[in-house]
Every structure is written in structure tokens, then in C-alpha cells.
Amino acid sequence: MQDRDSEGQVLRIGLLGAGRIGNVHAKTISSHPHSQLCAVSNVFAENAEKLADAYGASIRGLMTFWPIPRSTRC
What we know:
- By secondary structure, the protein is α/β, with parallel strands linked by helices.
- Helices cover about 35% and strands about 20% of the residues.
- It is built from 3 helices and 3 strands.
- It has helices at about 20-30, 45-55, 60-65, and strands at about 10-15, 35-40, 60.
- It has a 3-stranded parallel β-sheet.
- It starts with 10 loop residues before the first strand and ends in a 9-residue tail after the last helix.
């Protein structure tokens, strides 16, 4: 578990995208003592799995991050 701030909180972050820049973001998130990469989503499941495994995060589908109301879908 990550170190906690003075209020005992850790910022838990979900990452959309597990490509080249997603790897950069994951490394940055994980290096901060008050943040934790907790979930990864990507169009290509194998990319999400690889990144999630590397940082101890879970794999999530896009809709678990950002459910879009039916009335606003195309």
C-alpha cells in the first residue's frame, strides 16, 4: 500500500489507455507517494493486462470508468 498523506488519504487513479504514453503516466502515478494506480483500461485487452500486471492494478472495461447515459450516446 502507498504511503498516506497527513490526512491518511491516497489518490486512487484509473488510467484510460495502455500504450506508450499510458506507460509514462503509469510510471509517474506510481512514483508519487500519495497516489496509486488502481485500474487500467485499453481497447486492446492484452495491453491493459500487461500494464496492470506491471503496477499491481486491476483491468477494467471502459464503461466501468465512465458510464455514458443512453440519451447521450451516438
